[in-house]
Amino acid sequence: MPQGVPTTVPDDGLTTKQRRNRPLVIVHTGDGKGKSTAAFGLALRHWNQGWPVGVFQFVKSAKWRIGEQTAVETLADLHEREGTGGPMEWHKMGAGWSWSRKDGDETDHAADALAGWQEIKRRLAAETHRMYVLDEFTYPVNWGWIDVDDVVETLANRPGQQHVVITGRRADPKIIELADLVTEMTQVKHPFEQGQKGQRGIEW
Amino acid sequence: MPQGVPTTVPDDGLTTKQRRNRPLVIVHTGDGKGKSTAAFGLALRHWNQGWPVGVFQFVKSAKWRIGEQTAVETLADLHEREGTGGPMEWHKMGAGWSWSRKDGDETDHAADALAGWQEIKRRLAAETHRMYVLDEFTYPVNWGWIDVDDVVETLANRPGQQHVVITGRRADPKIIELADLVTEMTQVKHPFEQGQKGQRGIEW
User: Fold this and answer.
1) Chain A contact set for B186 (CB, 8 A)
2) Are A28 and B185 in contact (CB under 8 A)?
3) Could you tell me which of A164, A89, A171, A86 has the C-alpha nearest to residue A124?
4) What pTM was computed for the model?
5) Minimal Cα–Cα distance from A46 to chain B, Å?
6) Using CB atoms, which residue from B28, B163, B191 is nearest to A181?
7) Closest chain A residue by Cα to residue B8
8) What is the pLDDT of residues B4-17, one digit of tens each?
9) What is the ipTM of this complex?
10) Alpha helix (H) ranges present in chain A?
11) Domains of chain B (ranges plus CATH)?
């Protein structure tokens, strides 16, 4: 995409540079494909700038592993070994977040989702990352596991220069209202309609 | 995204496995963001499977370099050095494609775009890659530089197991008709509307 040119210049007292560097809340929603994939691409743009990225996958099973996770972890490892790009972390809710893995296999998805959000709040307060990908985050919010007002207040008051990307269907209107950039992915035509199943390299 | 379950099973005489492995033409269109970024994510899924990928950026200036290009080239280099993942190539039209760089700085964008498409046709015939990303390909087609009927016929008759992803606004209806999977990215809210300019890590 070519570099954008603003269509209006607001009377907010900010310089172009201040406005340019304003941290964004980005939402990828809708029923179509590409919501998560496009979010992980933004993570790679941050890696390329040398900036720290945290990816948090809500909902996904611990067994489900997509190509982007391997790509991100490979690039994160290269950062560790050779200093290329920026540091990246990839956390999956699945059978418990990596920072809070506990014994036993009692899983309480609602509690796990909330624990994930609480960790993200701690990291936002500590300015741990420059970009946060909250993948499939709309679901635990819509299911009432995570309080949407807490999300909106936390994001609205986050310190420093931290971008937050939220993906998932049916994003809450309060999150849409807060967001700076919202894209809706719409399914126009899908091979599952022709009886085709998911395949390697496309769905994972 | 969870693995999809087909909503109908067609009476086409194919087994589920044959149907699953059917190569796809994928289109990311619409005025919203994420069309190219999501396509590059599919390229990473192929890299992760160890399959060869070719990215062809039409339109983009040679000076314009996005984070994904560095990520893809870094992973391609890692494949060369250590055998990780699959081979990837990234070609930009800009000041001439890498395989056809010529002296002089006379640039004829229409001729360059057509030369890019002709190279892609040769590679499809030779089954060079398993995934082709034709980024911003809708523009040279819409400008009449590349014949849409030739595109449709070539894609419809390509041999073997080759996925093709086409990105760009206003995809030609003939391409939409041919495609197996079409996603429209719609802009719901954009910071350029609030007078904000593009920024590092987000637009590139």
Assistant:
1) 30, 183-186
2) no
3) A164
4) 0.82
5) 5
6) B191
7) A195
8) 556 666 666 666 66
9) 0.75
10) 16-20, 35-49, 67-82, 109-126, 138-142, 148-156, 173-178
11) 20-96+108-185 (3.40.50.300)
